[in-house]
Amino acid sequence: MTRPAITIWRHGQAGTPEPLLDIAADGRVTGYTGHVDLGTGLRTAMAQIVAEELDIAPGQVSMVMGDTASTPDQGPTIASESIQIAAVPLRQAAAQARAVIAGLASARLNAGIDDLDLRDGMIGTDAARLPIADLLTGPPVSLQLDPDTAVKPASDYHLVGRHLPRVDLAGKATGAWTYVHDVAVPGMLHGHVIRPPYAGRDSGPFIGRSLIEVDEDAVSGMAGFVALVRKGDFLGVVAEREGQARAIAEALPVRWATPPDLPDLSDIPGTLRDLPSEKRMLADRGDVDGALERAATTLTRSYAWPWNLHGSIGPSCAVADWREGRVTIWSGTQNPHMLRADIARLMDLPETAVDIVRHEAAGCFGRNCADDVCGDAALLSRATGRPVRVQLTREQEHLWEPKGAAQLMDVTGGLDANGNFDVYDFETRYPSNRGPNLALLLTGAIDPAPQPCDMGDRTAIPPYRIPNLRAAVHDMAPIVRASWFRGVSAMPNTFAHECFIDELAAEAGEDPVAYRLRHVDDPRTADLIRRTAEDGGWQPGRAPRLTRQGQIATGQGFAHATYVHGAFPGVAAAQAAWMAEVTVNRDTGEVILDRITVAQDHGLAINPEGVRHQIHGNVVQSISRAMGEDTRFDRTGARDAEWGSYPIARFEDLPEIRAILMERPEEPPLGVGESASVPSAAAIANAIFDATGVRMRELPFTPERVKAALDGQPLPRGLPAPADTAPPRWRRLATGVGAALAGGLMASAVGLAIRAEIPRVPRPDNIWSAETVERGRQLFAAGACAVCHTAEGGVPLVGGRPMETPFGTVYSTNLTPDPDTGLGAWSYPAFARAMREGVSRDGSHLYPAFPYTAFAKMTDSDLQALYAYIQSLDPVQADTPPASMIAPVNLRPSMAAWNALYHDATPFTPDRAQSELWNRGAYLVEGVGHCAACHSPRNALGAERGGAAHLSGGMVDGWLAPALNGTGPAPLDWTEADFLAYLRDGVSPRHGAAGGPMAPVVAELAALPETDLRAMAHYLASLNDTGKDRSDAAAPLDALALDQPLEMATGPAARLFRASCGACHITGPVPSATAARVPLALSSAVHADRPDSVIRAVIDGLPAVGRPDPRAMPGFGSALTDDHIAALARFLRQTLAPDKPAWDGITEAIGRARQP
Amino acid sequence: MSKMHVTTTVNGDTVEFLADPRETLLDSLRDQLGLTGTKEGCGTGDCGACSVRLDGTLVCSCLVLGVEADGKRIDTIEGMSEDGALHPLQRKFIEHAALQCGFCTPGILIAAKALLEENSNPTEEEVRYWLAGNLCRCTGYDKIIRAVMDAAAELRQEAA
């Protein structure tokens, strides 16, 4: 690389020179900043500043942002200080470079410096003008930054202050932009981390010391396995591909110690007051105690803010490359230099051996897991010596991100005799620190003792003239991981200030806007407040207006804040004022934001459209936080792991927004990244008060909480917290065949000999016609033999699938014609005896899990065909594990007695009164198809119950096998067409889709000719003729109308359903290829007598079934907690089957489904 | 489980790949085909960041298996501009600065294009409901709606 023609640099903190700006010989300019673009347009604005000082086209300037190898350490990109603070040296460097260029031009053109003018990249006088590049032919110039360099006066600006298109947008709109998620390094492997059960916690002696054991051998043979890396509680696996790493991580058996209980975090005021804190006085002026004693009116109030998630749309990701004692990390960090120090500490390297290459990531607005995942990738890369990419799961991101902290503000204040705001005594509690890197904590590299920090004091002083004022912050160690989030501590503090002044105005009987104005000294603040009220159409009033029509109340609310950030007393960023207009449904507590008018005074706007953009983003994000965000914890840790349980604002929640940019081009630019968020919650709370007379002093303003406040009840916090939550185990699409088959009563196992052995024979070879073998193949499929006789992930047909029965564990046997371990030495009579009588070749009894009771109905000719097909298979040697049955089932006489009681070995006899089709169907269903094995209830001894109970439904593997005899609670009758569709396509749009153990059965049935499927459907439909009107059975379903109750329902469970399940189960007007094919209103599972199938489908998902368009449902077991799933089950039952009794045993059913 | 051979048409080009039967279409696009414009946000169909079109129908590619794409047509963000010319929606998104971090943008653009093909003159309400399955944390939604409405107007003019 050639040296730049001009370089301006400064001494960094470590004494090494850091470049701020250079100009290449061709005139191209590069600016360097340690701050990063968080998608807010900073890259464009910084280039704009440089171009302005140098008077060149912005396209000539490129910015290097956040790469630690080349950019100055300017601390984290936080608190909206990039333009206000970080851009200052950059601007000076540009001005200094401009002076260098002017000097060169003066010498070259023999003109006085003052006579030169620099425009559009050309410098000179009216007589002669040169491109800058022509001056850069001499030796390189390298100058230390002179902080006294004069910069351009704002009055001369022609670029800054105008709209400039953002440089990043085209790439982002075409998919070409390289986010950190898209970085690929040659030879890159993929890592997946396994986090401890104490989700989202980072202090206490158990941190880094809870991993008891991990069974690497159980996964080291899996496809793509490269390494398992363990250090303290850090645990990760590396594989060739991302999906492999995930599969290995999910299969890895790990045992963790149970963490100590968290305090009850649903009680924010109680918990925050009880925990240790260090009180730090921020201000104490006048005589607060005296003024309180003298006050005409005093109010004491508490305001509480919940824990919030940053809620980045993309989960964090990083790539690390460890090479010969150096590590390079491609990262989406918001604080590259801080991360470099953390990684150096983690790897025990000097900082100079760590390079952070910064790429954009999904918007974060604080500190999410972006840095944590860099530590993960670094550890995995060092262990494997290869580049490793790690992307967290959505669940990991939600659970582990350092939260925006909960906060408690206790206030006492008062009015003097004239209604003046005379005294304010403010205390705020902020349990947060800077969120130490998780890898440092998990590996034990740093002490996990609770550490407070001093960031709770932002905007702790209200922007009003108050003669007697005391403000203190209680610095507290975090209870759960917490760090800065947009409007750090200022949003909660302002919520208290601005609600309180509203309460005082009401006490004083004055209009809230006029009352604020009367206590404001700064004319800019007064202008801002007036302009907001005017443009918003503020209607002055001395008391809440309580405007309502019936149960619908409307109100307006006001709030204002000057966002003060940085260490106390801090630096003021832009100030903003809000006027919120709301509609409140007093019946339901629902609050609709009709319109937000927000004005902002930010001094000079570098890029006005960019500022407007920031205002919009702040408004919607902050109303999302105020109206619905509240992440919750159980005794173990964080529990909201997806967007259903932590809903954020959607398109339909968007109010009308009027953004007003105050024109202050003569004033220095102020940070705009957060200011417009700060007054939000108070403005909304004040509007709710104006509408209803009720003060909301705790966020969020969900319908349930507003309703409770209207009713004078204590405020609920979302869904009730469970006592304990099982650790999540399942994830992703449940697509494996028979993912949940274990536990069925369909297996065979070998008992003890009681009958005569039938001698071994040599394996019969090739003595059957192709037609016979083909017929055997179809029968084999009709019996779905492969389903039970193949272990999960094992070799097909060699058995070994374990099944829990009420009597112990049995294993299916090897069906291949291997002479020693399979059926190779079985003669046909031995095979037929087993099929008809349940007796193995050696004379031992088979357990009735093997459905010989059904197979006995098969014809000889079919049994022979089946035998022929089995003998035509490739033999595979594989032993079957012995069954472990409980007494007395393990005793040989008991099976013989069982057979005497329950087994009817009579072959099928056709019913001459019925059609041929019917008889064929009956033969398949009752014989080789052995449908009753699952779809009939069993008695205490494991026998299918007959008579009226035959095919009346049963339980298999925790799934309900619905009734096939018309006695089930399905809302619509099963017709022949329904059965045919279900057996052939795996789904009947009028009833349900094949899930659980039925899914692989449908897959097997694909081998049958449609005539046989139709026969089965015909027979089954004949059992289902309940006399209901079927005239409309062929009519198309209006799924939208059927599931409308789901869309109309209110309450937290309804919201959870819509956010978590709505993508497929509420299609609305949008056609989607994943729209559920069965309206839940018709689902057999929802109408069943027990909740098991609904719960299993939610936890495990449904495998891909169906022809010609297979469709799967992902499992949500790892994303949803037990109480979420219980709420969903109750919600579906209540909403869609209101005429049926509520389900009992939901909790127990979830527990069963969670069993490994 | 053995890999399955998948033949599909992506943005007009015939492509073939070997998919693990558990692999989502999103993984196939990003990892097998190197089309990283489609983003993963949640993996459970909640956020819409991975929206693509499958035989013309809008779909979260994280909810579809790669093998399901066999014999079908897939359209992703990479295929939205034609011969280097941005689609009017893309131009309007840039003009209105309807994106910040941009992570959700490909999904929203794909969904918006599906909307405008179905309904060339949507009301603001219809735009909101159509895009309700796409989450965004940065922009505040408003500019996105303006950009879609504006692009719709332009497309109608072109058609007229």
From TrEMBL, chain B:
Keyword annotations of the record: 2Fe-2S, Iron, Iron-sulfur, Metal-binding, Oxidoreductase
UniProt cross-references to CDD domains, sorted A to Z: fer2
Pfam families found in the cross-reference section: Fer2 (PF00111), Fer2_2 (PF01799)
Domain 2Fe-2S ferredoxin-type, first and last residues per copy: 4-80
Molecular function as annotated in GO: 2 iron, 2 sulfur cluster binding; metal ion binding; oxidoreductase activity
PROSITE patterns per record: 2FE2S_FER_1, 2FE2S_FER_2
Protein name: Ferredoxin
Taxonomic classification: Bacteria, Pseudomonadati, Pseudomonadota, Alphaproteobacteria, Rhodobacterales
